[in-house]
Amino acid sequence: MNVTIKGYSEGGNWYKGNLHCHTTDSDGKLTPSEVAELYRSAGYDFLAISDHNIFSDYRKQFDDETFIILPAMEASAALFEDESRKNLRKVHHIHGILGSEEMQKQAEKELFSHLQRYPEREYFGNWDGAAVAQRLQDDLKAHGCLTIYNHPVWSRVREEEFIYTKGLTALEIYNYGTVNESATGFDSLRWDVMLRDGVRIFATASDDNHNREVPDSFGGFIMVKAEKLSHENIIQAILAGNYYSSSGPEIYDWGMEDGTAYVECSPVSRVNFIAGNAVNAGASVLSDTGKDAIARAEFSLRGDETYIRAECVDSHGKTAWSNPIFL
Fold first, then answer.
1. What range defines the domain where residue 310 resides?
2. Of the four listed, 9, 85, 272, 302, which is most buried by Cβ atoms within 10 Å?
């Protein structure tokens, strides 16, 4: 496999962003203005304000040369035990983020407007979870949005209820808020289930911040490689997978050369190369001391891998996830 594949574009700059955020427009504690200033002050370059079933577009209010808002919402479908709505059994939470200019032009339905409410889809007793997820995704896409499936562990859904949803750009594999709330915000396992089944899908890490009792800001983010800080450039980079997800470590370079996958990162204690093919594919590179001493790691591919991705894990368990290279 004597080919060179770069995981990130050669040119451009790195931009830090949080794709999952709630405000007083739904169930968050802080106003949109307070949240925007919170993330701007923390060095973030972009923020998707994604309130529950309400689409917001705060670009005119908060955008400047160093910080931009991605218009978005978190749409939901809910399965209740019965019509009393006392017991919520499962949910699909799917992000709709305003897509590229081309996606907006090709939208089958009218684009969402600022603070437009989106009716929650409610089901009682039973549902066809896979069909419900597909309809929700399709409707968001029809309104010109890219879609991300959020926190499947927290949502209590079975694999078959979401992993074959067509049209998704990414799966949220790290959700800082639900990690701290109930240890239900981490799910790279089912990302690999999807990838090994041939689903071409990226991953995201995010905060899902509500800024209430649980610490839920500045713990999950993506770093996007783009030519400049604009809605179109950031969205195009996300659609291309030209970014990585993280709860702490940084990835500087990632790719494959002459049959060897490599990653360069901030010092970590282990690097996991996860591959799709046979049992026992992939490998982990461990620090001899257990300390954060690895800044570059390599893995020689066998040649029959269907994809390869990297995880850079520091001694505190914080992780950076590359997107997969499809082979």
1. 248-327
2. 272
Neighbours of 253 (CB within 10 A): 12
Tell me: do 236 and 255 sit in the same domain: no
Considering the domain architecture, whether residues 267 and 161 belong to the same structural domain is answered as no
**pLDDT for position 1:** 64
CATH code at position 313: 2.60.40.10
- pLDDT (0 to 100) of residue 279: 79
Q: Is 319 exposed, middle or buried (0-12, 13-18, 19+ CB in 10 A)?
A: buried
Q: Is 72 helix (H, G, I), strand (E, B) or coil?
A: strand
- Would you say 40 and 95 are in contact if contact means Cβ atoms under 8 Å apart? no
3-state secondary structure of 182: helix
Question: What pTM did the predictor assign?
Answer: 0.97
Residue 170 backbone phi and psi in degrees, to 5: -155, 165
Nearest to 195 by CA among 161, 170, 220, 174: 170
Residue 148 to residues 134, 224, 272: CA-CA distances in angstroms? 12, 16, 24
Collect all residues with Cβ–Cβ distance below 8 Å to 71 and sequence separation of at least 6. 48, 55, 56, 57, 58, 59, 97, 98, 112, 114
CA geometry: angle at 285 spanning 281 and 288, to 5°?
A: 150
The secondary structure of 186-209 as a DSSP string is B--HHHHHHHHTT---EEEEE--B
Tell me the two tokens of residue 306: 């269907």
Own/partner contacts of 121-126, CB < 8 Å, gap of 24 or more, are 121/76, 121/77, 121/78, 122/77, 122/78, 122/80, 122/85, 123/77, 123/78, 123/79, 123/80, 124/79, 124/80, 124/81, 124/82, 124/83, 125/80, 125/81, 125/82, 126/79
* CATH number of the domain encompassing residue 87: 3.20.20.140
